[in-house]
Specification:
It is found in: Periplasm. By secondary structure, the chain is of the alpha+beta class. About 20% of the residues lie in helices and about 35% in strands.
Length: about 240
């Protein structure tokens, strides 16, 4: 009885080995005839890496994994990546990968995410509306700027700096819509009015009728003629007339 049992065990083991070998042959043949998921992902990643708009920054590119059940015939040629007509590369972009060679051409789409990191200005403490923002109010932090839909500031601006348009919370990334350029000319201030008419430059004294930031248009009055004129703020004491 024990000899029969041992024979049965041996036969069962032999059957299992044969079945396992058959399954291995089937799966190995299937894998050999299917396109590599890693090759598809690498094609999509390389396409985005060479074309995204943050080339000067440190970036991280993530390609979403394909469903493990996805099987595409192995491409005998180089895979091609592409975007749909009218599509642009953004933080999250759907990239197509296709095989145009072989008996069974195919194409597939993969979501690809780009993170781009840059140093941005972050507030050290809450800032009240109308406050002048100085270096004491900000620190630098590294952020993924692809998530900053309103942009970000890289400096405190030109002469005059910035004023807060509204309340800004502590730890907030400073964005252009949070600030306005600070005035460098104040209403009632005496300023030099300069008019460039061809090769002749004429200067006269005037008075500012409005506050003005660098590069902004303001109304002024010529102190000699009393005329109201419009000009562009060129410095903290000069306005260029039209």
């Amino acid at each position: 009885m024990s000899r029969l049992s041992a024979a049965n065990k041996k036969a069962a083991l032999s059957h299992t080995l044969v079945l396992g070998a058959a399954l291995c042959l089937f799966s190995c043949a299937s894998a050999a005839s299917s396109e590599s998921h890693s090759r598809i992902a690498a094609t999509a990643e390389a396409y985005i890496a060479s074309r995204h708009p943050w080339q000067q920054l440190s970036t991280k590119i993530t390609v979403q994994n394909l469903d493990p059940r996805t099987q595409l015939s192995r491409c005998p040629a180089k895979l091609e990546a592409f975007l749909s007509n009218g599509a642009r590369i953004k933080r999250r972009t759907t990239v197509g990968v296709r095989c145009t060679a072989g008996a069974k051409p195919w194409k597939i789409y993969l979501p690809v995410t780009v993170e781009a990191f840059a140093k941005v200005m972050v507030t050290k403490h809450p800032i009240a509306p109308g406050s002048t923002i100085t270096a004491r109010d900000v620190s630098w932090g590294k952020r993924d700027i692809t998530t900053l839909g309103y942009g970000y500031l890289q400096s405190l601006g030109d002469q005059g700096g910035y004023q807060s348009r509204r309340s800004i919370a502590q730890g907030a990334v400073l964005t252009p819509n949070m600030v306005s350029a600070s005035s460098i000319i104040n209403k009632g201030q005496r300023v030099q009015l300069t008019s460039n008419d061809g090769p002749v430059s004429v200067s006269m004294m005037g008075i500012a009728l409005q506050d003005g930031a660098l590069g902004k248009r303001i109304l002024v009055k010529n102190l000699n003629s009393g005329k109201r004129l419009e000009g562009v703020v060129a410095s903290d004491n000069q306005v260029l007339l039209n």
